[in-house]
């Protein structure tokens, strides 16, 4: 199976970021170079996690080849018959090696030679060999630098300044190769080679080197790569997913309003109230005006009885309650809420409304009444992530999750909302890690209130699988530090957030829309001044900034002060936009200027690769138009369908066109998501361009009709922006 055609039959998804890969770097010493006849005399392997080499996690073994070691081979690796005498043969070693490799990706120098020898040894000894996914550092280097002639391990180690120890011993060469691979990863990332599949694609480029390896018989017979975009829709191609947990939010299933009790009430009264209502917890009212509510559960009552005996019945609730109530917003997806509950060992959590008030209670009992629990694909890994690699694992799981949900019939807009929710959570966790690092470095906690904002599609909850960073920082006006100083607390904080996200597989924004850049790191007053400048001078560049800024949502805030900052920015910036007739006209004109990719007789226009851009002439006019209408009518919703429908309602217009555009929006997102899943698995960087020949006839017909109705947004803009 050559690198030009291998299917990737390991257990690692092609979309897994390189820094999140579990890797085994492997090398063998043999009796010769004939993969069919020669035998293994030594195996060395070492584990890696991302760029970290772990020599203590190793596999080192001499092997009795069952035949005499030729003198020419002994001169290279120094092993003779006396060295391997009494050592186990491959029949004993093979299964242990496979167990050591597990599901890891195997990396090596000219690794396909080693794998070919292992494959033949396994066949010779009747062992069922499972071909792992693999990367060859020689092919990777040759793919990066076509002019490089000498890709030997000695030359690569010299080029990277890596000392060579134990050359031509299996373990020594494995460790040297591991260090070369570790040094190579930053170069791959710099060339936007971020995932396993993208690295595999790079390895296919050195055609001459591959041809020589194929001629030597290092690869199995090539097999055709399956069309993943179709395979993903087949039942059983993905893990079973309980889509209920990804379709519903806490607000859909919470018990509301919460049943409350006074802190002075007795435990007997609390137990009686819980029994009468058939519930397992009560919210305890604050004992004073500025206090926070607490919670008392049936378990608290049992523990009190165990401690106090019969006297527990008169104990005040306030003495046994827990406070504050651990809560989550009502728009939190159920799968994330369950992850939080599992991590904190909770049976009940509070549910807060948009203003932060306790609006209800969510319990496992409630969920079980509505839906039986199923295996979660994504749980609460983000909250426990301690480094970028941990976040990268979550990022790597998103394509598989999206594919499974689409295969389950889930609406693409809901899938996009889940992807966006994970991206926001990762951004928030990156902020927590960055702040913790600053504290550990002696810089202290945040010197002022702040809110970290996610912008663009992430803020709207409409993220697809081609991520980049669109974020900003709003800081309290009373902060007196110099935000232009590289050593400023917030400057360092923002830079580290963006660095963590980039290493986790969410690359830097090519347009520079990131908090580490000064234009996207401002005090509240500066942001409002900027909004006024955009409103007064709506240049094309200003409109690009407006398009991404006004979709912001907080990903992380410094307590209640940070929440107030974000809320104030939302209100006041919205009022500035609504009062700027010139900017609203310009936004409407820009949104209506994007023509759908249709040619004569309604034919869909394709580029030279047979793809069609469904963002430029499809999603973009709908999303941009909905934003302009929402700003005009003061619609607070961020999602495109809600903006369309709420603006039409506020303006007293028919909902028919809004509903149709919302449906087109969802349809286009489904086509793009499906293509992105296929591209990620194939090692092709995901974009908004869809292969037309990959669509079935029904989807092609629907696409043609949908693109033909995009001009509805122009009519809506004219209608709902009238009078400007």
UniProtKB/TrEMBL annotation:
Q: PROSITE patterns, from UniProt?
A: CBS
Q: Does the keyword Transcription regulation apply?
A: no
An example of a GO molecular function for this protein is: [protein-PII] uridylyltransferase activity
**Keyword annotations from UniProtKB, A to Z:** CBS domain
GO CC list: cytosol
Q: Which domain of life is it from?
A: Bacteria
Give every CBS domain span.
254-313, 321-378
What are the GO BP annotations of this UniProt entry? DNA replication proofreading
Q: Which SMART domains would you find in this protein's record?
A: CBS (SM00116), EXOIII (SM00479)
Q: Does the keyword Zinc apply?
A: no
What is this protein for, i.e. what is its function?
Answer: DNA polymerase III is a complex, multichain enzyme responsible for most of the replicative synthesis in bacteria. The epsilon subunit contain the editing function and is a proofreading 3'-5' exonuclease.
Description of how the protein assembles with itself and partners: DNA polymerase III contains a core (composed of alpha, epsilon and theta chains) that associates with a tau subunit. This core dimerizes to form the POLIII' complex. PolIII' associates with the gamma complex (composed of gamma, delta, delta', psi and chi chains) and with the beta chain to form the complete DNA polymerase III complex.
Protein name, as recorded? DNA polymerase-3 subunit epsilon/CBS domain-containing protein
- Native organism: Stappia indica
